[in-house]
Specification:
The complex is a heterodimer.
Chain A lengths: L1 E4 L4 E3 L6 E6 L23 H10 L1 H6 L2 E8 L3 H10 L6 E3 L4 H6 L3 E4 L2 E4 L2 E6 L2 E6 L8 H11 L4
Parallel strand pairs in A: 3-4, 4-5
Antiparallel strand pairs in A: 1-2, 1-5, 3-8, 6-7, 8-9
Chain B lengths: L10 E6 L18 H12 L1 H4 L3 E6 L3 H14 L3 E3 L16 H13 L11 H18 L4 E6 L1 H12 L15 E6 L5 E7 L4
Parallel strand pairs in B: 1-4, 2-3, 2-4
Antiparallel strand pairs in B: 1-5, 5-6
The chains are: A alpha+beta, B alpha/beta.
């Protein structure tokens, strides 16, 4: 299953070699666009930007722990994701699952807001394309990268 | 953060500098932002008129990395950068640069024994008193509106802890990478929000 990445690549997560991290998130906000009404009151909706920034700021540490690739995953299209990736200076791509193909295949949890279907926050550790560990629920979002680092330290690649 | 709106609280936003060029050959106060840090500051500056609307004054530590953070943002807001000589990072000149693990161990001790000088570092309680006094002076001399104060992680954590009434602890330290912010209400001095990345301002 191929997903469009914010950097223009097409990514098949089942073909990514080594250990990779995929964090699914609902939706990053934009400085020039108001969030959906009641966004902050939806459990688990807030915190996508801090979560992404935390993975950005831990990227070198994650690489040192054997992570070959990091991906964000959401249901926004690649144009929307590209703005976020560039504005936040993410050193990894965001993957677009607008058609919910991956979400349906893995039965990923989701919710609706203002007619949009959004992924609930969940993080996967993959090894050679196979799911090795799942973080769910993920809370607080800005702690997720630290939690992944701790798990990787406890479960080094042998 | 627009000034003067009904129900809106005038605040002091404390922003830490983002990523720096770590150069053991250069005194720490003279370190500048690295490429990532510069990009993050440029991004904030590009929408500072929205994110920091209502800001009436910008203050910065005398350290280069803080000024390189404050400068582009202040320019975008049409404001000068006021240097507060007493708002520098905790004085670590006794040891100078320490490599990563050694620095982290010292930082742990700095927060864990706040009354003590750890290997010549400024004690945390002294650094806290200094940064709190600097913030109070800034608030008393500034016109009504929001204030942006640009500085550093350790003294920022100490200022935030004071505002929140927390004991000094590294548990309240900023997230990895720097470029984080918290806000204090100008009138009450209470903490309005803890650390958020600068991209969420």
């Amino acid at each position: 299953m191929v997903l469009q990445a914010s950097n223009g690549d097409e990514v098949d997560l089942s073909e990514v070699p080594g250990r990779s991290v995929v964090y699914a998130y609902p939706m990053t906000g934009r400085p020039d666009v108001a969030l959906p009404d009641g966004w902050d009151d939806i459990p688990g909706a807030r915190g996508c930007t801090p979560q992404s920034c935390a993975f950005r700021d831990h990227a070198e540490e994650l690489a040192g722990l054997g992570v070959t690739r990091i991906f964000g995953l959401s249901t926004q299209d690649s144009v929307y994701q590209r703005e976020a990736a560039e504005r936040l200076h993410l050193p990894f791509p965001l993957l677009s699952d607008t058609g919910l193909a991956l979400a349906d295949e893995l039965d990923l949890p989701r919710f609706k807001a203002e007619g949009m279907v959004l992924l609930k926050r969940l993080t996967l550790i993959l090894m050679d394309g196979m799911i090795e560990h799942v973080f769910y629920p993920v809370f607080p979002p800005d702690q997720n990268a630290d939690d992944v680092v701790a798990w990787l330290r406890a479960n080094p690649v042998v | 953060m627009a000034e003067g709106q009904p129900g809106r609280v005038n605040r002091l936003c404390y922003l830490t500098h983002p990523q720096v060029v770590i150069d053991p050959a250069v005194p720490v106060p003279n370190w500048g932002l690295n490429e990532m840090g510069q990009k993050r500051v440029a991004s904030l500056a590009s929408y500072a008129s929205q994110a920091l609307a209502g800001t009436v004054a910008v203050y910065a530590s005398p350290e280069r990395k803080a000024q390189e953070t404050a400068g582009p943002v202040a320019e975008a807001l049409g404001l000068p950068v006021n240097i507060r000589d007493d708002s520098y990072e905790n004085d670590r000149s006794a040891t100078g640069y320490l490599p990563g693990p050694a620095f982290e161990a010292m930082a742990d001790r700095f927060f864990a024994t706040p009354e003590l000088s750890v290997d010549g570092w400024e004690p945390a309680i002294d650094a806290q008193a200094r940064i709190v006094a600097a913030a109070h002076a800034i608030l008393s001399e500034s016109p009504p509106g929001h204030i942006l104060m640009v500085g550093h992680g350790a003294v920022g954590t100490l200022l935030m802890s004071h505002a929140a009434g927390w004991a000094i602890s590294r548990d309240h330290d900023q997230p990895v990478g720097g470029g984080n912010a918290f806000s204090i209400a100008r009138d009450t001095g209470e903490l309005l929000n803890g650390w958020i990345p600068m991209e969420k301002l």
